[in-house]
Amino acid sequence: MIYFITSVVLILTGMYAVLVKKNLIKIVIGLSIIDSGVHLLMIAIGYVKNATAPIFSKPGLTADKMVDPVPQALVLTSIVIGLAVTAVALSLVIRLYDHHKTLDINKIRKLKW
Amino acid sequence: MRKVIAILLLAVVGYYILGTLLNLPFGQKATGVGKYYLDSTIKETGTVNTVTSIVVSYRGFDTLGEVTVLFLAATGLGAILFDKKGKKRSLQNASLIVKTSSKMIYPLTVLLGAYVFVHGHLTPGGGFQGGAIIATGTLLMFMAYRSFETNHTALTIIESLAGLTFVSIGISGLIWGYSFLQNILPLGTPNELLSGGIIPLIYIAVGFKVGAELTTVLDTLLKTIKG
Amino acid sequence: MDWLTILVPFLSLLIIIAAGFAVYQKDLILAIIGTSAISVVLSIFFYILQAPDVALTEAAIGVALSTIIFVITIKKTKRYEE
Question: Torsions phi, psi of B12, nearest 5?
Fold first, then answer.
């Protein structure tokens, strides 16, 4: 249960950073914090009490005493994609700084809300 | 004002997310599809690591898409930062201790990465983890030696060959079997290195591809001129 | 299971503090170290939750590569948030 609460707090902190902060790198940091929260949430949903990891590495391990492998496979995909998305977003930040000489979205007028 | 609106919005969102999640049972089996994969992974794919068998075999098409997204990200990064590319980095070298120890650690890191992706179907790990570990080793060399250069042609060739291997394994499943990415090789005995049919081959290709791509991303970002 | 009941609340407190630090810190390099700390603790969480594959991925990508990409970007732009 504590994992659910932690992940929701992480998601809300990241959303706060995305909504309130004006620095572009802070916004990307907020996106990566949201990512972490969602990963923790999905792994926590797949957890089974007193179970082992889903690897039949030695005889005697049975399938009904294992955690759910599907969320783990999805999160494995998601972490790598998250890195790719972060890299592209940061390269766009570099280009914006190059053009406007600032990272403040209030001074880059078209990104204001 | 903006902060107040944001906090109110987040309070509403958090209330509903928490209200949903606190009704979920924690620590119990929730879905039936995971049970199917756990029951049939050894019988159908010959792989003991269920996460690997889901990522590479049951959801193999998804992994092909993921590898494509990584490739697009590396290419897009190079395209966005195209005209800011410098010839080389003009900074001073690291200290002697860092240089010597990173020269000793770098081959061991690459060896660990190769071990992780070759044994992806037996132990925790696989192509993505192994490739990321190899890229971390290259990053260590980048930080220690300012004059360290990667061979771009070799990286491109490795990346293209690995992607081609993945796709041609999938198409050979279509030729000699019934569907794309079907397991056409013998499964072997579980818990041995040569088991699992096409799964180790695909994960080795993915490992090479991810390692080359992440190294390219780091190299592109490091060579960008400031300002 | 006894030591886990003490360790897990401590670690989740740590992760929330690191997230707050990452959002509120004006020096962006220190904020990145905050996100790196989140990734380290998250990796321990994944290990406790019986997901060694994901823990390995998070340790390699979240702690090392993601952090270094942010640091390179800050070096190419500006360090302090004003």
Answer: -65, -50
